[in-house]
Amino acid sequence: MGDEAIVVAVSTGLLTRPVITPGGVARDVVGEWVDSVGVRRGLATASDNACVPLDPPIQQMLTALEAMGGESLASGSPEHARQGFRSLTVDLRNPESVPSVAAVEEVELPGPAGGLPARVYRPEVEGPVPTILFIHGGGFVIGDLDTHDNQCRALCGGVEAVVLSLGYRLAPEAPYPAAVEDCFAALQWVGAHVDQLGGDPDRLVVAGDSAGGNLAAVSAVMARDAGGPRLAAQLLIYPATDFREVENRYPSREENAEGYFLTRADMAWFAGHYVGHADPQDPRLSPVLTEDLTGLAPAIVVTAEYDPLRDEGEAYARALQDAGVSVTSRRYDGLIHGFFDLFPLSPASAAAVQETCKNLRRLLVHIPAS
Predict the structure, then answer these.
(1) pTM > 0.85
(2) Which of 81, 113, 248, 334 has the most crowded CB, counting CB atoms within 10 A?
(3) Which residues of the chain have a pLDDT value below 50?
(4) Comparing C-alpha atoms, which of 346, 183, 177 is closest to residue 278?
């Protein structure tokens, strides 16, 4: 990402007043501190709460953004935000940074309100291989197949799996529960057509980032309740898990309310468009409130220290673990919301993505055949 990318990111209002953060270390949330694979330490920053340094390329980007300023999502329209997000993640992408895969195919899946656009990525290995349904983030309002193309390619190659990326209905045109219905319909379709995808029915995964992590978590519960499809794993990347406004329950919402890409004002803007008049305590909105989490697929939950969603993602990981679900929970200190798409820019983000893929690949190797 060059200087042009920074200018457009600010002018489109996607990023607001970033500040310098420490970075470069992954933490096992339920265990000891551990260095992430390939993440290196450097010089400390001047941040008051610095414990390790921010990866130098991200520090340069955030410093430039802080100097330029920028508007918040809440000050614009959904269409304006969508265009800005595409400018940042698609239009300014360096072709040389795009991970290669064996093949990419555009498809359409049947949905409850019409066809759903989808994209299939195939790895450069012989099958059968796992199949991953990937649900993109974007606060349920922005994002599409193109904005998350890099992430799907990274998963495809890193896990050596067929990845089907889903385009679901977005709010405010289609508020809750449209996205939930679309995603579960897609999961059912993928489960019934694994032979056309990865080819291994015992290694089906649902995955997503941010809002997509919320929808992946909800879809995993719905699959259990419906008796299928049977999942081998769920990959939840900095998921939103609680729409309630509960004071002091999640300190990261206050600690990271400003300056780290996703702001608390942005979160309120997204929620206003998506939740509408629904009850935030509905577990299909707030999966952390699901009464029974037993019997769910093993989960990998990835969070970032400087993310307002950090604490609720980790709360969901603990709830899963308390219910007897096998959980690998990793917090990447010094990284921010959206880091899964920053691997072309940031060595620390690249290492986190690499480790996440390695953890999922390792988990799938040990899945017993049905």
Answers:
(1) yes
(2) 334
(3) 1-51
(4) 177
